[in-house]
TrEMBL record:
It catalyses: L-homoserine + NAD(+) = L-aspartate 4-semialdehyde + NADH + H(+); L-homoserine + NADP(+) = L-aspartate 4-semialdehyde + NADPH + H(+). The keyword Oxidoreductase applies. The keyword Oxidoreductase applies. Keywords: Amino-acid biosynthesis, Methionine biosynthesis, Oxidoreductase, Sodium, Threonine biosynthesis. It comes from Microbacterium dauci. Coiled coil: none annotated. This is Homoserine dehydrogenase. PANTHER family: HOMOSERINE DEHYDROGENASE. Catalyzes the conversion of L-aspartate-beta-semialdehyde (L-Asa) to L-homoserine (L-Hse), the third step in the biosynthesis of threonine and methionine from aspartate.
Length: 445
């Protein structure tokens, strides 16, 4: 009887995700072999310190600091170290050595994805990355494969669990941002330095990946418009609730039509990340805690939603191992790997070119004529008012001499983003306006 081929698997990284990947490869070896069609032998784990404490008890001889030698002898290389370097160099080494690569590295893909995919195409290998966006949620393969024959019109995604946890608790409990952020750090949802999450860098990386897949266009990270959530306070959350909305940090990837300078099809795309108002009846409004969800609007398939755990070691390891099994099957079947489709090459428009409706919250002098002044500025800027809510409060002691303050919450009809931005600048410069508290777009209406 011919001994079945055994596939050699090298693992780069043994952190929260890597340790769970290693555990599942070892403890579920028989099941994975049946699904893949051949045994998957974990031949080594590259780490910085072989003696560091680990979450999973594995034989010490599996650990090595010699990543290059480990990569050179592998059929499949799993990269879960994160960061740009040495991850980029090691993945290129793996591909040039004839290995398929499975990675969860969203920052690397958003920054150097084109280079890595081109390297894989040259040698007939595959770079698989289901775990790079939304953790355990299967979204990469549905966009790349299941919807390849459809036209995706729009994606709205809650793709960062830390910010969703913060905004959800602020909405449900009326808590302040700083208080909830401290809780998120204590619970392990947020890092000691939460900048990547709360300033939306993490979500922007994922948006670039999703847009590239959905629209078959290479989307560089610097083309993604990004705004974080650090300015969101309890008052903004309360105003949103009264208007029938919930605040969510959304990654929005949108196909635009009838663009005058987008020859020959007239189509372009917009990729943006910002806190947005979502109607409470929309499915994304019910995504609570640290969960993620991706809402896809496709021409033929209609509306689809993918929901689940967006992070966590064992959850992300599930997505990694799904890619490992697929890579193993390709190795056994032979032939080139599945390349990335970026041939549409649609132009990416800046934020000023899109059209949205929004909610503008202002602090203004509470005196006759101010509302008319504000309405005139909006009208001059080609921004039409849909709703207005006004509340009055006696100011602080320092403000009392200047009179009371009124809070205006203005909902607008759809307007061009550049017109909205220019109008908000004019509002901020008007003497009757004490402060522009917030400007939040409405998505999902």
């Amino acid at each position: 009887m011919i001994e079945p081929r055994r596939l050699r698997v090298a693992l780069l990284g043994a952190g929260a995700v890597g340790s769970q990947v290693a555990r599942l490869l070892v403890t579920h070896a028989d099941e994975l072999a049946e699904r893949a069609g051949a045994p998957l032998d974990l031949v080594g784990i590259a780490v910085r310190d072989v003696d560091a404490p680990r979450e999973v008890d594995l034989p010490r001889e599996l650990y090595t600091t010699d990543a290059d030698t480990l990569i050179a002898g592998a059929d499949i290389v799993i990269e879960v170290t994160g960061g740009l370097e040495p991850a980029r160099t090691r993945i290129l080494h793996a591909l040039n050595s004839g290995a398929d690569v499975v990675t969860a590295n969203k920052a690397l893909l958003a920054t150097h994805g084109t280079e890595l995919f081109e390297a894989a195409d040259r040698v007939g290998a595959t770079v698989a990355y289901e775990a790079a966006v939304a953790g355990a949620i299967p979204i990469i393969r549905p966009l790349r494969d299941s919807l390849a024959g459809d036209r995706v019109r729009r994606i709205m995604g809650i793709v960062n669990g830390t910010t969703n946890y913060i905004l959800d608790r602020m909405d449900r409990e009326g808590s302040d941002f700083d208080e909830v952020l401290a809780d998120a750090q204590r619970l392990g949802y947020a890092e000691a330095d939460p900048t990547a999450d709360v300033e939306a860098y993490d979500a922007a990386q994922k948006a670039a990946i999703l847009a590239s897949l959905a629209f078959h266009t290479s989307v560089p990270l610097d083309a993604v418009h990004r705004e974080g959530i650090t300015h969101i306070d309890a008052g903004i959350i309360d105003a949103a609730r009264k208007a029938g909305y919930v605040v969510k940090l959304l990654a929005v990837c949108e196909r635009l039509v009838d663009q005058p300078d987008a020859a020959p099809t007239g189509e372009a795309i917009s990729v943006r990340v910002y806190p947005a108002l979502v109607p409470r009846e929309h499915p994304l409004a019910s995504v609570h805690g640290a969960n993620n969800a991706v809402f896809v609007e496709a021409e033929a398939a209609g509306d689809l939603m993918f929901y689940g755990a967006g992070a966590g070691g064992v959850q992300t390891a599930s997505a990694v191992l799904g890619d490992v099994v697929s890579a193993a099957r390709r190795h056994l079947a032979g032939g080139p790997g599945v390349g990335e489709s970026t041939r549409a090459n649609l132009p990416i428009v800046p934020i000023g070119r899109i059209s949205t409706s929004c909610q503008i919250t202002l602090e203004v002098d509470d005196k006759p004529g101010v509302l008319a002044t504000v309405a005139g500025i909006l009208s001059d800027g080609r921004v039409s008012i849909a709703t207005v809510e006004q509340t009055t409060s006696a100011g602080t002691a320092d403000e009392a001499s200047e009179g009371a303050i009124a809070h205006l919450v203005i909902g607008t009809h759809t307007a061009r983003e550049q017109d909205l931005s220019d109008t908000v600048d004019r509002l901020a410069a008007n003497p009757a306006v004490r402060r522009v508290v917030s400007v939040l777009r409405v998505e999902g209406d």
